[in-house]
Amino acid sequence: MTENTLLLRQVHPSFVQDGKITSQVFRPTPKDENKLSMYI
Amino acid sequence: MEYQTIDFLSPRFLGKRFEDHSIPLEILKDLSVFEEMVNEVAKWLYLEEHPDRLRVPRGFTNEISIKLQNIQKGSAIPKLVLVILTLPSLFASESQNYFEKARDKIISSIDAAENNKRITEHLPEHLLVYFDRIGRSLLDEEVIEFKPNDLDHPARLNKITRKSLLASSKVKEYSEEIILNGSIPEADQDKNIFTLLKKDSKRIIAPLDPIIKNIVLKAFNDYQNNQEITLKGIGRFNSNSELERIESIEHIQLVDKLDISNRLAELTLLKDGWLDGKGKALNRSGINWLEKTFESLYEASLPLPRIFPTAEGGVQAEWSINNWEISLEIDLDSKYGEFQALEIDSGAEIEEKYNLNESFSWGELNKNLKKIIGELK
After folding, report:
1. Contacts of B327 in chain A (CB under 8 A)
2. End position of a domain, from candidates B222, B255, B288
């Protein structure tokens, strides 16, 4: 991974309002069993 | 000409809007329809008692009218009187008699509705249609007691008894006051109608009156940018209580893209499991609390936050102000809020815990936001 690597994240529509996403998507949630995503 | 004034009816209006012993003007419309109804019921009674007559005598209702004399305390009791022209009418006392009988019939039909008795024993179907316009602006908890002094049979008109009265009438549709949010994907300036696309994706046709045209067309032109409106008016419902169309619109306004009530209404549509099977639905009474509290205690001059649901069934308000990223995570059950603000460049942080049931905490939140904006040192 370099600083130019584009990381995509799928976001629930309720986590977007007027074009901005909530900071919660950068935090672990129960649906990920509280584990952060990894880049392999 | 001489007039005689006779006490006719003193119904009691109960509900928050009447607690200051006054009656909103929009409710007075209902009293005006009540007079129309008394007139028509009086004529019907006359013809029932005189089967040989095709019409009521000339002047039967001309020399008699119902007027609002004053509003008494408790919550609000409008004192309605019959005003009768005493001379030279021959029919005045007869009219009075039929007006009083008509009043009693209307009251007994309401009492029958309240006690699940046969309503049409008191009034025929075609006269019950008047209840489509009497009581339609009543809110959920509001009641009109037509016989407030009769503790056993106060003849209460509320949303439920009104529906029973209408169900016994000839109309199978009924109208009711509505407040709706949505966007406007279609407007037809030739037919003078537009379509309101509600949040549940249902489309409703509404009249495009000249007085609201500017706002409707603005919302229509900005449809692609998700411009929404909120409107208050009269909706027509079918017998399954489904909204069929909008009959008239009293107020319409464009909604701020970050409007809190609108956003919270959207979030109440989330069901358990909304976040890949894990997200909890938001607690509706908590949402109502937040909407009311936010409206009264969040300072109107401050920027509106974005509002997001949390997986735990709460909400998170977020602001991006200057170089600061700010969040307030609100637990809708405990009413506590975790406030976090981070200045991206300097790494400066503010963290607070607020009891949002207390107005003091909202004052502290307002102060912190003002500091960040630079209005306070």
Report:
1. 23
2. B255
Domain span including residue B162: 3-171
Q: Give the closest-approach CA distance of B334 to chain A in angstroms.
A: 20
| B263 → chain A, closest CA residue | A17
Q: Which is it for strands B174-188 and B76-85: parallel, antiparallel or unpaired?
A: unpaired
- Cα–Cα distance for residue pair B92/A22, rounded to 1 Å: 73
The nearest CA of chain B is from the CA of A2 a distance in Å of 22
Q: What is the DSSP letter of B301?
A: T
Which of B277, B306, B312 minimises the CB distance to A17?
B306
- Rounded Cα distance, B285 and B135, in Å: 26
Residues B103 and B47 placed together within one structural domain of the fold: yes
Range of the domain at A11: 1-40
pTM: 0.67
Q: Are residues B95 and B48 in the same domain?
A: yes
pLDDT tens, chain B, 377 aa long: 678 899 999 999 999 999 988 999 988 999 999 999 999 999 999 999 999 988 888 778 777 889 999 999 888 999 999 888 765 555 667 888 999 999 999 999 999 999 999 999 999 999 999 999 999 889 999 999 999 999 999 999 999 999 999 999 887 788 999 999 899 999 999 999 999 999 888 999 999 999 999 999 999 999 998 899 999 999 999 878 899 999 999 999 999 889 998 899 889 999 999 998 889 999 999 999 999 999 999 999 999 999 999 999 999 999 999 899 999 999 999 999 999 999 999 999 999 999 999 999 999 999 999 999 886 65
* Cα–Cα distance, B351 to B327 (Å, whole number): 10
Contact B11, B78 (CB under 8 A): yes
Q: Is A24 on the interface with B (CB under 8 A)?
A: yes
Residue contact A31–B267, C-beta within 8 A? no
Q: For chain B, say whether A26 makes contact (Cβ under 8 Å).
A: no
Q: Verify whether the Cβ–Cβ distance B308 to A31 is below 8 Å.
A: no
Q: In whole angstroms, how large is the CA radius of gyration of chain B?
A: 27
- Does ipTM top 0.90? no
- Nearest residue, CB atoms, A22 vs list B263, B276, B316: B316
Rounded distance between C-alpha atoms, residue B113 and residue B134, angstroms: 14
